[in-house]
Amino acid sequence: EQFNSFTAGNELKPDSLLDYNKCISDPKYDDNPQVTFRNAEYLLDFAQEEGLSMRGHTLVWHSQTPRWFFTEGYSRDENAPLVSKELMLKRMENYIKNVLEYIQSNYPGLVYAWDVVNEAIEVGDDMPGYYRSNESYWYQIIGEEFLEKAFEYARKYADPEVRLFYNDYNTEQVTKMNAIIDMVEKLKAKDLIDGIGLQCHIGHNSPSITDIESSIRKYAELGLEIQVTELDMSLTDYTEETLMKQASRYKRLFLTLKYLKEKGFANITNVTFWGLSDDISWLNKPGIPNYPLLFDQYLVQKPAFWGAIMHPDIPLN
Known about the structure:
Blueprint: E1 5-7, H1 14-17, H2 20-23, H3 41-50, E2 53-61, H4 85-106, E3 111-118, H5 137-142, H6 145-157, E4 163-168, H7 174-189, E5 195-198, E6 201-203, H8 209-220, E7 225-234, H9 240-262, E8 268-273, H10 303-309
Parallel strand pairs: 1-2, 2-3, 3-4, 4-5, 5-7, 6-7, 7-8
Helix pairs in contact: 4-6, 9-10
């Protein structure tokens, strides 16, 4: 009743889809990584049966992508050498091709957008363009070209109506924002990207709504779709007072999004919460529960729900 689409948190990431046993079963797969959807089919089936749409998350990411995917012979040896740039580009293209073709053949029209590349910018690595390097085998093998190539392959194999996004966090931070804008401008010039995903993992005090609004305005100047893709609001102090403050902040955020959308300042096409209920949030730590979402562990609406739902004309996902 309350949501019209959802994102699989982990089931469409490379470590879930890559089929190691099939990959090593025949040398012909050395440049053609094989995939299996055994971990994702139940979600795809559910979405199809219930008439829900899905955001695809994510094709290329430095995390949750096993090291063996980048090694010679798909070796799991921790000291195994990495493959050449040429071979890694072939693996990237065929991986993207295999994922998209499976979903589009078996679940046509179900996935309306893909986060093609996730979290490729890391200011702290201090590389040209602020590309993430220390944790990224993609960057270490291919260089910054990996990002454009990922979008090139996604555009090549995705159905024409599927929207292609770059997705990242802390997108309101000025240095990171400028790096993302510079990168996206190059992709847009080649018609490889349709939108920017702003994860929006925020706290109950920061960043300011003003900073979030200012960054959205800047991204919107690119003329692309804007989607809030992983919204939650960290809260570890579960009291009536803090819950009301959280609700107020959600309300102010949605008022801002509504204003930007209705006044034509930004083409905001989606808001997705990163989880349904507090008890299953990724923010929970051992002994330190978190309460970042709209529903509690019993699926009862929190004050945050009423803060957000006051603006039903914005797609709530």
